[in-house]
Design brief:
Blueprint: H1 3-14, H2 20-51, H3 54-74
């Protein structure tokens, strides 16, 4: 969730009344965007998989794993 999205959700939950319909609409909108993004990710990954050699795909997987590891360390996550 984006920073602004979190603020919007907090606003929906802390107002004078809690509007279940508005909260559900917020959730539904965010899930639709997430679905669209993950669909695009699958398309791009599939296209790359069709172009790259097995060795290149393996190298990308290694680089992604390294990135995740470093990102987690910066955030204080333990693996």
């Amino acid at each position: 969730m984006m920073q602004g999205d979190a603020g919007e959700l907090v606003g929906l939950l802390t107002g004078a009344t809690v509007d279940r319909t508005a909260i559900e609409a917020f959730r539904s909108e965010k899930m639709a965007k997430l679905d669209q993004l993950t669909s695009q990710l699958v398309d791009v990954a599939t296209q790359a998989g069709e172009i790259l050699t097995p060795e290149q795909r393996t190298k990308i997987a290694e680089l992604v794993a390294e990135h995740r590891e470093h990102r987690g360390k910066r955030r204080g996550w333990k693996h």
